[in-house]
Amino acid sequence: MTPGLSRNGLHLLAPHQLQADFPILSRQVNGKRLAYLDSGASTQRPRAVIDAVVHYETQLHSNVHRGVHTLSQLATDAYEGARERARRFLNAASTREIIFLRGTTEAINLVAQSWGRGRLGNGHVGPDDEIIVSALEHHANLVPWQLLAEERGARLRVIPIDDHGQIRFEAFQALLNERTRLVAITHVSNALGTVVPLKRVIDAAHHAGVPVLVDGAQAVAHTPVDVRALGCDFYCFSGHKLYGPTGIGVLYGREALLADMPVWQGGGDMIRTVSYERSTWNDLPYKFEAGTPNISGAIGLAAAMDYLEQLGIEKVAHHEHELLDAATAALMRIPGVHIHGTAAHKAAILSFTLKGVHPHDLGTVLDHEGVAIRAGHHCAMPLMDLLGLPATARASFGCYNTLADVEQLEAAVRKAVEVFH
Question: How far apart are CA 364 and CA 1, in angstroms?
Fold first, then answer.
């Protein structure tokens, strides 16, 4: 894409030109220009991703692996090429460390059920053991650990947060002990936008001999991720929050850990041999990929990674932060608006409430004005309870958003003030 220049001379995106890459952004909603501010839930797809999926469906479609005919070989090459693309995106050491799954939720469940239970049920988590999570977690990084803890007689310990929505690092250090078996933590809070000091968390956990799983669903579209530099043991994300298709995601795991983990689901492609008496398992990464995979999804995800890296993730992040700053300032000028989540380091997520107005009602008014936001508990009900809120309204930004979207958001919230007050 053609970069623009901001008034201070920094090279940024040219978002007005960029919007042409996203066909859906040309449509109207309720007779108004669409201001799509729900990228935290699901980003829109650029034409490059759509074209990659269509090319597969119309030119390459066949089942992967084992096929000797041309289409199967071409589809396999494209699918395994997507795995290599994901490896480069995360800087993993090997494609054996890249597992394709439906998304972040399935990836976390795989680790909980396979790593947590371990071979012959003698897993890494047992009675009176502890799993550390944070108060910022999405349900997907809470419920699988609750299920495992209940089954194994273990317990969850929760890292508290301060009034700005930042984890209390000293409290986290105090939670680490000889019974800690895992730290499962988000990279970026989907509800508040808080960026967790991940490297510090990982280093502290490893110093105590504890592995770390990272929920990177809200991070990968906004910051470069190098799993080897971070030193994390598991890292997972979903394609649809990365300008890619739904139903596809990635689990990175250190090869030594994955190799020692038992299989989770049984079926085609995760087997080496099968008899009526017993079966043996395929090599990594295939032993965790039972059944026909989401081939078009993986190919579309690879195209999304290409697209984002061609833009420059750092440029995207800078652009989004300019919009976040502008939107924060704009909403704070409106009487009755309260911003939730004021961490020093935030991704482009803005959660807010309007006094006396339920966020669902606020979201409905904004939709009438063509502004798409998310309203609800954001799959973070324990965090909402901690904040004393039933829900928040959440505007989240992507590479295609502009200052015009911020102005439309402000005008729509002011319209809500008129309607309800």
Answer: 34
DSSP 270: S
- Do 413 and 267 reside in the same domain of the chain? no
Instruction: Identify the burial level of 255 via C-beta atoms within 10 angstroms of its C-beta, where 0-12 means exposed, 13-18 middle and 19 or more buried.
Output: middle
User: Residue 146: helix, strand or coil by DSSP?
Assistant: helix
In the listed set 246, 275, 309, which residue is the last one of a domain according to the structure? Answer: 309
Instruction: Estimate the crossing angle of helix 313-332 against helix 403-420, to 10 degrees.
Output: 30
Pair 73, 28 in one domain: no
Q: Tell me the DSSP string of 291-317.
A: SS--HHHHHHHHHHHHHHHHH-HHHHH
Q: Which domain holds residue 166?
A: 50-309
**Catalytic amino acids?**
379
Strands 249-253 and 98-101: antiparallel
Last residue of a domain, one of 290, 309, 328: 309
Is 13 in contact with 1 (CB distance < 8 Å)?
yes
Give the Cα separation of 365 and 359 in Å (integer): 10
pLDDT tens digits, one per residue of 302-360: 999 999 999 999 999 999 999 999 999 999 999 999 999 999 999 999 999 999 999 99
What are the tens digits of pLDDT across the range 358-417?
A: 999 999 999 999 999 999 999 999 999 999 999 999 999 999 999 999 999 999 999 999
Output 76-84 pairs: Cβ under 8 A, ≥24 positions apart: 78/295, 78/299, 79/293, 79/295, 79/298, 79/299, 81/302, 82/298, 82/299, 82/301, 82/302, 83/285, 83/298
What residue type is 177 in one-letter code?
A: N
- CA–CA separation, 351 vs 369, rounded Å? 19
Q: Which of 218, 203, 211, 207 is nearest to 137 (CA)?
A: 218
CB neighbours of 245 closer than 8 A, spacing ≥ 6?
45, 49, 53, 239, 294, 296, 297, 300, 301
Percentage of the chain beyond pLDDT 70 is: 96
Q: Are 3 and 11 in contact (CB under 8 A)?
A: yes
How far apart, in Å, are the Cα atoms of 365 and each of 369, 390, 420? 7, 18, 10
* SS3 readout for 189-202: CCCCCEECCHHHHH
Amino acid at 325: D
What is the structure's pLDDT at 81?
A: 98
